[in-house]
Amino acid sequence: MSFISEINSPADLRQLKVEDLQEVADEIRAFIIDTCSRIGGHTGASLGAVELAVAMHYVFDTPNDRLVWDVGHQAYAHKILTGRRDELHTIKQPGGLSGFLRRDESEYDTFGAGHASTSLSAALGMAIARDLKKEDFHVCALIGDSSLAGGMAMEAINQAGHLKSRLIVVLNDNEMSIAPAVGALSRYLNRIKEAQSYQHLKEEIGDALGSVPGIGGSLRRAAKSFKDAIAAAVLPGALVNELGFKYIGYVDGHNVPMLVAALEEAKKVDDGPVIVHALTTKGKGFPNPEKNYYAYHATGPFDPKTGLPYKSSKAAAAPTYTKVFGDTMCQLMAQDEKIVGLTAAMPDGTGIDRVLEEFPSRAFDVGIAEQHAVTFCAGMACEGLKPVAAIYSTFLQRGFDQVIHDVCLQDLNVTFAMDRAGIVGADGPTHHGLLDIAYLRGYPNIVLMAPKDEAEMRDMLLTAIEYPGPAALRYPRGNGVGADISQEPKELEIGKGEVLRSGKDAAIIAYGTMVGSAMEAADRLASDGIQATVVNARFVKPLDEALITGLAGEHSVIVTVEEAYLAGGFGSAVMELLEEHGLLGDLTLVRLGVPDEIVPHGNPKDLLAGYGLDAKGIDSAVRRCVDSVSGKKPDNKRFRVVR
Ligand SMILES: Cc1ncc(C[n+]2csc(CCOP(=O)(O)OP(=O)(O)O)c2C)c(N)n1
Asked: What is the spatial distance between Cα 222 and Cα 216, in angstroms, rounded to a whole number?
């Protein structure tokens, strides 16, 4: 490591000669492979952007010039170059570096991200602020080819071309999203590449035709005009120039001197936005000859020599919720041809990959386009289909207005399968799915539910599909609890909870993932003579009104538990219901959930325990309330007690 051990900031990098930069990139690549082989991470995405990071920090005077990375998952080389080399081994680890970019982590992280397609809007905002303040620096956004197809990026391109502000966009084109890139834009980018190759060939072909004896001249003229028409249709000019962008490219995105030259050219464009089209290979240098594109995007720990993942020594766990969802979709789609399945660029993450394979005409990957995905489903529902949109809880935030305006307002039969609901772990604040209850609960028509285990998830999926209006189910990342999933899915009665055990001292009403912990807490309490009722709420909308008001009549302590933000969440819904019925008077109501703070990345179990969202935490909350009510110990105000 002759170069990178000496690079503690981009200023150090800029001391080097251009000829040395390829070596710097090679060292960084080796460093990333070594680090990720031990701890995993966004290995492939970051390996593909090493040379881009080196060239950008070399050409631009960072942090004075602003670099904006889209998503930020591919920016490990950027972290290494900006003073975080020695901490890279902590990336995504509890207390360690974020897996994405954060303004509070480094002055070089000019804009925080984690969700896709935001970079162009943010960069354009910075460029306009610069112009208004009459300052002078470059703003350069790096965006992947799939994120470029996201609605926000398209909207930003539209405005950037119109404003004519100085802005540099580097397109990191690897023809990949997490899965292979989809959509017409991706085809268009390929056609640009083909057209450019054609430009190089054109003269040669023309010469060859011209040499045909007798008719060569006219053949050549005809071919030239025909081919020029094709070229005009596909060269970047047709889209990019018309929209006010200059175009530089394409360039080999793994050739640092070439990238440096292209970016230097881009810096000279002072009358509007310019796009530098760099071709890269995702997972460049990854030590596995077998191309596995999912593994290339992000990996767990792997053998740095073979690239093969280390085998887990853990006993075979229950299947993941994701897998059970995908399998159940296939089962239900085989029985009902009106059901269609959809993902927004997360086929493997949502289990829709199997659906795409088995039902290619009734399954869609729309790309990074959650807003479109929701309204696309609404349209299909208008025509009598039963669309199921499998979108992570955090990414459905993008489609909020579409859920409200296009689906709920029109009471359409669309099912939202929200994977990764709750605390997701290493991906952290941008990816935790803690808000969906709050953002979906406030509008009429939608049914909201959460299963206690993977078997109930199958029932809920069928229930949601058969419900004639909008319905959403939330379920967590990771393995199920090992429930028996051999039974056929059955429809559940909408708005009916399930009493799992009865006790006189307190009632614990749990939603989704928290049901298991509530049952465990009840066992612990029972061993000390405290008898708790445990309810699996199943639905937050509509709530089981009869059951919950009944519980309030029979218990002086009610504890609600949810893996979500408290504000606007499940407990709030229960509190509102009790308030409407005038039942809060003598009741001690405690809501357990996530308080009003940013939840960091970390081990989900530990994070949940920290918020008292495990058996121990629920046990101690109930115990304190029961003691306080019985006058044994005064309440210490740790809980929000409503009297
Ligand atoms: C709104 C949103 N939807 C989905 C994702 C999940 N996601 C993270 S990276 C990624 C692929 C991005 O592809 P591209 O922009 O081409 O960059 P690459 O990873 O190929 O460098 C996806 C779909 C996300 N981060 N944000």
From this structure: 10
Closest residue by CA, ligand 1 atom 12: 177
Where is 277: in which H helix or E strand?
A: strand 273-279
Q: How far is CA 124 from the centre of its chain?
A: 23
Percentage of the chain exceeding pLDDT 70:
89
Quick one: DSSP state of residue 399?
Answer: G
Q: Is the pTM of this model over 0.85?
A: yes
In DSSP notation, 71-91 reads SSTT-HHHHIIIIIGGGGGGT
Residue 370 bears catalytic tag: yes
Residue 520 φ then ψ, to 5°: -60, -40
Catalytic residue among 27, 51, 175, 370: 370
Could you confirm whether 282 is annotated as catalytic?
yes
For tokens 């990238």, name the residue.
259
Instruction: Give the model confidence (pLDDT) of 576-615 as tens digits.
Output: 999 999 999 889 999 999 999 999 999 999 999 999 999 9
Report residue 640's pLDDT band, with 50, 70 and 90 as the boundaries. Answer: very low
228: tokens are: 């020029």
Cβ-contact 238, 232 below 8 angstroms: yes
Residue in 206, 199, 201, 203 with CA at minimum distance from that of residue 223: 206
Of 78-87, 121-130, 196-205, 261-270, least confident by mean pLDDT is 196-205
Can you tell me the distance from the alpha carbon of 272 to that of 616, in angstroms, rounded to the nearest whole number?
A: 59
Q: In what order do the strands lie in the sheet with 539-541?
A: 363-365, 339-343, 386-390, 415-418, 471-474, 447-449, 539-541
Catalytic residue, from 398, 452, 474, 541: name it.
398
Instruction: Report the pLDDT averaged over residues 620-635.
Output: 85
- Secondary structure (3-state) at 368: coil
Q: Residue 525: in which H helix or E strand, if any?
A: helix 514-526
Is 634's pLDDT higher than 70? no
Q: State how far the Cα of 265 lies from the Cα of 256, in Å rounded to an integer.
A: 14
d(CA 78, CA 556) in angstroms, rounded, equals 56
What's phi and psi for 150, nearest 5 deg?
A: -65, 150
Angle subtended by helix axes 50-59 and 256-268, to nearest 10: 40
Is the predicted pLDDT of residue 533 greater than 70, yes or no? yes
**Distance from C-alpha of 94 to C-alpha of 327, rounded to nearest angstrom:** 33
Which numbered atom of ligand 1 lies nearest the CA of 117?
1
Decide whether any atom of ligand 1 lies within 6 Å of the 399 Cβ.
Answer: no
**CA gap 196, 279 in Å, rounded:** 13
CA distances from 362 to 322, 356, 367, 434, 492 (A): 19, 8, 16, 30, 25
Q: What share of the chain is helix, strand, coil (3-state, %, to 5)?
A: 45, 15, 40
Four-point Cα dihedral 198, 199, 204, 207, nearest 10: 120
